[in-house]
Amino acid sequence: MPAKTHMKNLCILALSALFPLLTSAQSLDWTAYGQEPGGKRYVASDQITPKNVSQLQVAWQFQTQELETYKGEGYLLERAAFEATPVMVDGVLYFPTPTNRVFAIDAQTGKEIWQFDPNMDLFRTEFSELTCRGVSYWENPQNGIMEGAEKRIVMGTVDGRLFSLDAVTGKPDPKFGKEGVVDLKLGTGLVQVTSAPAIYKDIIIVGSSIGDNNRTHAASGVVRAFSIHDGAERWAFDPIPQSPDLLIDGSWQEGSANRTGAANVWATISVDEENGLVYLPSSSPSPDFYGGERLGNNDYANSVIALDAETGEYRWHFQVVHHDLWDYDIPCQPVLFELEREGKKQPAVAIGTKMGHIFILNRLTGEPIFPFEERPVPASDVPGEVAAKTQPFPILPKPIGLQGITLEDAWGPNAEERQKSQELIQSLRYEGIFTPPSFEGTLVSPGNTGGINWGGMSYDPDRQILVTNINRFAYMVKLLPRHEPKVVSDYLNAVRSDDNMIDPETNRMIGTPYRMARYPFVKALESGGIFGHTQPPWGTILGIDLNTGEKLWEKPLGYMGDATQNPEVKKWGSINLGGTCLTAGGLTFVAATVDNHLRAFETETGKLLWEHPLPASGIATPMSYEVDGEQYIVIAAGGHGKNPFTKMGDYVIAFSL
Asked: Which of 15, 245, 393, 492 is deepest in the core (most CB within 10 A)?
């Protein structure tokens, strides 16, 4: 090779290695669902500040026309949820709709560049929920240096397919899988994907959403990795151990790992690019509310599992719930960050849970940075069930949200309603958090919507503040004998005729002796809105100082009901789904509530500084970026079909100064 050519190639390789560092240091893009692969959801832009945030105005508004897709189809409208958080790279915004149509629009003007339709058969597949929370972006690290630059948008669909699209044209990559698509259902049964896949180098890592309450032998919750170049499978990991090497004594008793399913990873996966690790937040094995067919702690389920991102080899795991009986899966993306304590920096991961427990671990070893302890919890009185004797509780940060209920916590807008709430509490079994399901009915607190749900947590690295929004609702769970249909029907009819109750959700739990019924511990008001049978606030946002592990502040978030008729409702908070976005300007942006507002809080104090009405409920996580020196805040506003108190829509809205 001539010396000149050799030197040129060395320069190209050097620039190629440097290029990602340059773009990451200078870029104010939002390149992944959580802004970056570790999910901090923090943008290093300080143009918008506490002093000028009140000047934010709508910069542009885009409509996907998604509601036309559901027109005349109540089945779809009742299940659709526009929960997407866009990604933004090089001035282009990419996001999916609930039916997995993908849009690319100009990040400054909101003008459409292209759209892709995966042509789902919306009427043949049964969807528990119709949603897609995001897409992922990949580009060849030699882009900008070599010719033939490759840029891809990767998306999993609710009908179990994995697409790789050309980011410039929106057309499927013909080299990927079969004409741009990989079938994820092959050999796994019904599998849905609702979260954005993870990207590590040239590997796509994808989990799945599985109905885990219908039967014991649910579909496998296996997580798989594929090549971005051709869609070939690189590795697979099943959170229910199929290898003797991963079996832990007593964790899956009497071969029970072969009599269950799920433990799937439906929430967003995090990637530590520097250390080559991937972090899987797993869910409960099936079915959720009875574990007599899967006795033991059920390790790897309800856990964060660290794997080698290149090979899928197991490194460590931390289980947040032993032998889950409450649908307490890990619902949100683990947050990766560098934590400075006592003058030392540690690579950390924060795990948020539906119980309101936050665990802070060393992300290389799984060892706790902040302490936790195993505490005794109530036993089950259901034949065939053996609940775990202890559960892990964090000492710091202290548990957040609804952690305990007494008769004094009963609430209602008047004395009569408070009395009814007290009677309801007295009628149910409740011995604190982790009280097992029962035949008489168990008060589950927090309920399966959280605590923290898929909205997750955000981290400000400059201030070392962790921010999250939470729900503060209990649920009622009751087991019913499967082979006594009259007992089941009589109970359901009684609940539906009681104006104190919201219609229960029921699940068959095939393969067990029981069925399950559950409903949120709330009451619908004739005037609109709902109230909880326990003291408000029912939804809050809070900040935690990770220097000390102590809570800095907590504020009610949103409201349910008519604030013009009763201003007090603004103090009561709202059920919320969707997370927060933090900025270097010291602001926390959040929508998530049923009252159709986007809000800005001061990150250090929690002071509400700005709120703006949206044309529909923003049941999504906002994001932020800069283009040509101007900072934008963007939110999807489309409501949630399963929540009748949200307003439906198909908007993506950008705000700027």
From this structure: 393
CA–CA separation, 412 and 618 (whole Å): 27
Summarised one tens digit per residue, pLDDT across range 614-623 is 999 999 999 9
DSSP-assigned letters across all residues of 286-304: SSSS--TTS-S--TTTTEE
Q: Do residues 288 and 264 make contact, with C-beta atoms less than 8 angstroms apart?
A: no
- Sheet order of strands, 198-200 included: 198-200, 203-206, 223-227, 233-237
Mean pLDDT over residues 254-277, rounded? 93
> Can you read off the two tokens belonging to residue 299?
């390790």
pLDDT at position 501: 60
Lowest mean pLDDT among 20-29, 37-46, 98-107: 20-29
β-strand 314-319 against 335-341: which pairing, if any? unpaired
Give the span between the Cα atoms of 50 and 589, in whole angstroms.
Answer: 12
Contact 37, 20 (CB under 8 A): no
Type and span of the H or E element at 556? strand 550-556
- Cα 391 to Cα 79: distance, rounded to the nearest angstrom: 34
Q: Going by DSSP bridges, is the β-strand pair 580-583/42-43 parallel, antiparallel, or unpaired?
A: parallel
Q: Which of 327, 329, 460, 650 is catalytic?
A: 327
Q: How far apart are CA 260 and CA 254, in angstroms?
A: 12
233-238 own/partner pairs: CB under 8 Å, 24+ apart: 234/203, 234/312, 235/311, 235/312, 236/312, 237/280, 237/305, 237/307, 237/312, 237/314
Of 296, 183, 289, 299, give the one whose Cα is nearest residue 245. 299
pLDDT category, 566, cuts 50, 70, 90?
confident
**Predicted structure pTM score:** 0.93
List Cβ neighbours of 195 (8 Å cut-off, separation of 6 or more): 33, 133, 134, 156, 207, 209, 266, 267, 268, 269, 454
Cα distance between residue 428 and residue 436, in whole Å: 12
DSSP string, 119-132: ---TTTS--S-B--
β strands within 82-232, DSSP E = 87-89, 92-96, 102-106, 112-116, 136-139, 151-156, 161-166, 181-183, 198-200, 203-206, 223-227
Is 230 catalytic? The answer is no
Distance CA 421, CA 25 (A): 54
For residue 414, what are the contacts with CB-CB under 8 A and spacing of at least 6?
A: none
Q: Indicate if the pLDDT at residue 1 is higher than 50.
A: no
Sign of CA dihedral 478, 522, 324, 301: positive
Q: What's the whole-number mean pLDDT along residues 261-277?
A: 96
3-state SS, 250-287, equals CCCHHHHHHCCCECCCCCCCEEECCCCEEEEECCCECC
In the block, tokens 């890990």 appear at 330
Buried b (16+ CB within 10 A) or exposed e, 235-259: bebbbbbeeeebeeeebbeeebbeb
* 416 token code pair: 């009569």
